[in-house]
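Good morning C.,

I know you're traveling, so I'll keep this short. The sequence:
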Amino acid sequence: MKMTPKGTPVGVEDPYAYVDKCDHLTGEGFCRLALQNSNVEEAFQMELEGRRYICPVVEDKWGWENCPYFRFRSMENRCSRCGLEEKINAHDSSRPLLERHHLSYRKAAMGKGRVSHEITVMLCRWCHAKVHKSGAIISENAAPDRKALELLWKRKNAEMKETKFESAKERYKNN
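The tokens, ready to paste straight into the viewer:
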């Protein structure tokens, strides 16, 4: 299993197995990064220019791991392990139920030909702790933690209470 720089488990063997598509890939298969960013390596820019900016992964010429600029940050609003959905109270500063979990960590010294990528998925706080502290695996079927469900229902109830119609007279009758 992959490990963090501190030696705690990441929860996966292959981070690329959790990737849908690169964040730079457009719906038409173009590399947005090469089209819009002049700060990419000249060799990479020339390669994509020769392909009319079509991503080599889309054409099955490369795998995600071969792209020097690959990045995947999950935008899911549910935990990748237990499926718990996010519920944020708009006028509340409470901690979110979900947080990003890094599957791939940057290496301090990169050897020739080795590429470091940012790959993240969303995990609830409880699954995140289980992955790092007890070596839980992200791909296993897990039920949401009881405390997570309690907090989710508390937030949903607060939202329902807030959306219930009350006239101002009823709402502030004791004031």
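Safe travels,
E.
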